[in-house]
C-alpha cells in the first residue's frame, strides 16, 4: 500500500503540467512522458508503473476535484489519459468559455450525435440548426467558425464533414450524457462504458464500440449478437494494432 501513499515528486508535477497543457494524451505519449519525467528528475522509473504514478497524482488532486482518467478512443480503441474536472459539470465549465448561442449549438449538435444511428452528425444538419437557435440565431459562416473552435478545444472531432464527440469530451461528460439522455444513450455491451460511435444489433438494440466489436468477433466466422444470439448484420471492423500497442501487449505478457 506504500505506492498508494507515495509523495508527489518533481517528476509527478512535470507530468501533470504537460498533461494539463495538452488536456488529453494517447497512451503511448503518456508512457513516453512518464519515462522522460522520471529521467529528467532522477526518479526511479518502472515501465509498468504508469497507473501507480498517476494514482499518486490523483490523490493530490482530490481536494481540487480533479482527476486524471484513463479512457479509450472510440475510433481505434487506443488508451488515452485526460485531466478531468469533477467539480463542475462540463456544460457549466463550457459556459465560462462560450457564448450562450454557441453553447446551444453544441447541445443541439450533441443531440444529433447521440440520437444518430452511428454516432455522427453531418455538418449540413448542424448548420441547419444555426438559424433556429432560441438564444440568438447564427449565420452559417459564423456557425462554421464555432464548430472549428469546438474541434480545436477537443469537444468535437470531425471527419469528412461528419462530427462526433471527441474522446476527451466523452471521458469528461460520460455521467452527464448518461443522465441527460437516459433513454437514448447506449452503454457498450462489452466494456460497459458510454458508446457514441457504435454498431447496434438490429434485433435487440444493444450497442458496441467499433473496437470492442472488432475484438469480440475476431475469431468468429459467423458473428452473433452477444445478447440475443441473432446474426450480427454489420461489417466487422478490423482492429489494426500500432507498433506501440503491439509493444505494450508484448511487455504485458
UniProtKB/TrEMBL annotation:
The family line of this record is:
Belongs to the NSE1 family.
Keyword Transcription annotated: no
- Mind telling me what this protein is named? Non-structural maintenance of chromosomes element 1 homolog
GO molecular function: any one?
A: ubiquitin protein ligase activity
Provide the catalytic activity annotation: S-ubiquitinyl-[E2 ubiquitin-conjugating enzyme]-L-cysteine + [acceptor protein]-L-lysine = [E2 ubiquitin-conjugating enzyme]-L-cysteine + N(6)-ubiquitinyl-[acceptor protein]-L-lysine
Entry function: RING-type zinc finger-containing E3 ubiquitin ligase that assembles with melanoma antigen protein (MAGE) to catalyze the direct transfer of ubiquitin from E2 ubiquitin-conjugating enzyme to a specific substrate. Involved in maintenance of genome integrity, DNA damage response and DNA repair.
Q: Which organism is it from?
A: Anseranas semipalmata
Q: Which InterPro entries match?
A: Nse1 (IPR011513), Nse1_RING_C4HC3-type (IPR014857), WH-like_DNA-bd_sf (IPR036388), Znf_RING (IPR001841), Znf_RING/FYVE/PHD (IPR013083)
Q: Name one GO cellular component term.
A: chromosome, telomeric region
PROSITE patterns with a match to the protein in the record? ZF_RING_2
Name the Pfam families on file: SMC_Nse1, zf-RING-like
Q: How does this polypeptide assemble, per the annotation?
A: Component of the Smc5-Smc6 complex.
A Gene Ontology biological process term? double-strand break repair via homologous recombination
The UniProt keywords, alphabetically, are:
Chromosome, DNA damage, DNA recombination, DNA repair, Metal-binding, Nucleus, Telomere, Transferase, Ubl conjugation pathway, Zinc, Zinc-finger
Q: What is the uppermost EC class here?
A: transferase
- Cellular localisation: Chromosome, Telomere; Nucleus
Q: Which residues form the signal peptide?
A: none
Predominant localisation class: nucleus
